Amino acid sequence: MAFSLLRPFPVSARVRARIERLEIPWNRYGLDPYGVDREELAHFFSVLEFFYERYFRVTTAGLRHVPARGRAMLVGNHSGGWALDALMVLASVFFDLEPPRLAQGMVEKFLERLPFTAQATSRLGQFPGLPDNARRLLEDERLLMVFPEGARGTAKRFFERDTLVRFGTGFVRLALETKTPIVPFAFVGGGEAIPTILNLDRLGKRFGLPYVPITPYLLPIPLPVHVVLVYGPPMTFDGTGRESDETVRAFVAQVKTRIADLIRKGRAVRKGRLSVSALEAPR
Amino acid sequence: MKVIVTGAAGGMGRLVARQLAGAGHRVLGIDVRPWLDAPPGVEMVVADIRKRPAEDVFRTRGADAVIHMGTVTYLTHRREARSKINLVGTQAVVEYAHRYGVGQVLFVGRHTYYGAAPDAPLYHREEDPPLGVHTYPELADLVAADLYAAAALWRFPEVATCILRVAYVLGPSGHGPLANYLSARRVPTVLGYDPLFQVMHERDAARAVATALEHRLRGVFNVTGPAPVPLSVLVEEASRPNVPVPEPLLTRLFGRFGFPRLPRGAVAHLQHPVVADGKRFRAATGFRYEVDLPDTMAEFRRAFPLDSAP
């Protein structure tokens, strides 16, 4: 086996049981056709279990909106100096959805260049964000995770937390083309977990990163705070993916509005002004 | 069918020639190297494809098809000679086929055409451009030969031209760059990277070439076998010690301390995947691989045990 930073961590019994229930076609090597590695996933989720269940206080709501099987696109906001939100989404659909699913993120290219992250992302099914990859995974009925804000989203500073920056439009075209439902979600509390005060772009370039986030305690280590993850009802749009920019931008605006609304609800839950059961109640 | 096979005395060339002769075709092999124990049904002509005697074979003997496998990699030739053999040789084959009425040209290329890059798609389709030419000059002339051969599709529409981009082959013959890499005493990998590799048994590859010929394919096709696996799995299956080395140190170890000799550009191929989508070829021919990866690797292990490694 390749040298992996995750291997020293033992696999928990709960993770082992849930890995077995993932509906992924494994071959004799425990690999799927894209090189996702069952053992590596088991070690990864065992580490993630600690952060999802103990380190952070995580409130997850609306998971019933995530389809149990078949293609779907989880689309949400970035919150926090790096993609902590993606890890929490991965954990929520693996630990709290029945049957468990593997969310497959569309990652930034710089992670594919760097050692260790290049290896980890490809074994864990987190692939470069190319339209071709997204289309292939959706046509294979996988669960895609998309952050249309991209690296602009993780670069939000503390005072900009829970705001939304410009959304890319490619995800809507793909959803139209592949007839994929979009499940909007909001992640709240990432800004408090990793309170960025400034981003060092030059230093980042040195290391092949888009920037290095600096917190009041310097390092972007997340604090053990309360974070809230809220999923909303799926949105489907009719079309072919070849629509005019205005049409697509209007669809994107609808998704963005929905996510902004979910962020408001998530903030209310985080502040204790709204109960999770109120969120879960069908409207 | 009468088939001219260039590079017939090479590792893959022999397999393809045998496969065709076994299927009842008459094979005329052209190679600068002799093949002394060529099987019945295979007639060898020792000649350089770029020279007159090779053209004479096309002119005087004629053929229904030509399979061009007379390309070389960094393993056997230095850059300038290699580039001439690959490009001028391909030009000669295409021109002779047109001039002497050979109805079918099959160019056997490599899936490494696409190159290894961090932003490469999970599966390359035939339309994808080559991504690695700037990082791997050793690959440039093979990419150019592939594209040159493909140009025959519009230059000579009367010839059925087919470009095959075949995944890495492995088997008991020990032919090819991957076999060279995996048969070393120590196999170097790049620390923190474990790219996907796509490997098929050499017999399956030879069958695929024969299948393409019999279907008279026209166009560009990826030829693949079992699903790709990470490089670490291949090294383990070859029962070799996997030695992860930080990237900056790696090229210094090539050819020393039992590590294989590799060009600098090969490092990118140890970091990033090259995976091709073989769907189009399967759909056009119904081709299915016969040897699964564990069996391929077992055969390789038996043919190249660690204690016989250089």
SSE blueprint and pairings:
The complex is a heterodimer of chains A (283) and B (310).
Chain A: H1 13-21, H2 38-55, E1 57-61, E2 72-76, H3 84-95, E3 103-107, H4 109-113, H5 117-123, E4 127-128, H6 131-139, E5 143-146, H7 151-154, H8 170-178, E6 182-188, H9 190-193, E7 198-200, H10 201-206, E8 212-214, E9 226-231, H11 245-270, H12 276-280
Parallel strand pairs in A: 1-9, 2-5, 2-6, 3-4, 3-5
Antiparallel strand pairs in A: 6-9, 7-8
Chain B: E1 2-6, H1 11-22, E2 26-31, E3 42-46, H2 52-61, E4 65-68, H3 79-99, E5 104-110, H4 137-155, E6 160-166, E7 168-170, H5 177-182, E8 187-190, E9 196-197, E10 199-201, H6 202-214, E11 219-223, E12 229-230, H7 231-237, E13 242-245, H8 247-253, H9 266-271, H10 279-285, H11 293-303
Parallel strand pairs in B: 1-2, 1-4, 2-3, 4-5, 5-6, 6-11, 7-10, 8-13
Antiparallel strand pairs in B: 9-12
Can you put this structure into words, describing what you see?
The complex is a heterodimer of chains A (283) and B (310). Chain A has a single domain (21-280), classed as Glycerol-3-phosphate (1)-acyltransferase. Chain A has a 7-stranded mixed beta sheet with strand order 1-9-6-2-5-3-4, sandwiched between helices. In chain A, strands 7-8 form a two-stranded antiparallel ribbon. The termini of chain A are far apart. In chain A, 40% of the residues lie in helices and 14% in strands. Chain A has 283 residues and is α/β, with parallel strands linked by helices. Chain A has helices spanning 13-21, 38-55, 84-95, 109-113, 117-123, 131-139, 151-154, 170-178, 190-193, 201-206, 245-270, 276-280, and strands spanning 57-61, 72-76, 103-107, 127-128, 143-146, 182-188, 198-200, 212-214, 226-231. In chain A, helix 2 packs across helix 3 and helix 6 runs parallel beside helix 8 (170-178). A 7-stranded parallel beta sheet of chain B has the order 3-2-1-4-5-6-11, sandwiched between helices. Chain B has a two-stranded parallel sheet with strand order 7-10. Chain B is built from 11 helices and 13 strands. Chain B has one domain (2-308): 3-Layer(aba) Sandwich (Rossmann fold). In chain B, helix 3 (79-99) links the parallel strand 4 (65-68) and strand 5 (104-110). Chain B has helices spanning 11-22, 52-61, 79-99, 137-155, 177-182, 202-214, 231-237, 247-253, 266-271, 279-285, 293-303, and strands at 2-6, 26-31, 42-46, 65-68, 104-110, 160-166, 168-170, 187-190, 196-197, 199-201, 219-223, 229-230, 242-245. In chain B, helix 1 packs across helix 6 and helix 3 (79-99) runs parallel beside helix 4. By secondary structure, chain B is of the alpha/beta class. Chain A binds chain B through residues 1-3, 27-29, 31, 33-35, 37, 109, 112-119, 122-123, 127-128, 130, 132-133, 136, and chain B through 118-123, 125, 189-196, 227-233, 236, 242, 244, 246-247, 271-273, 292-294.
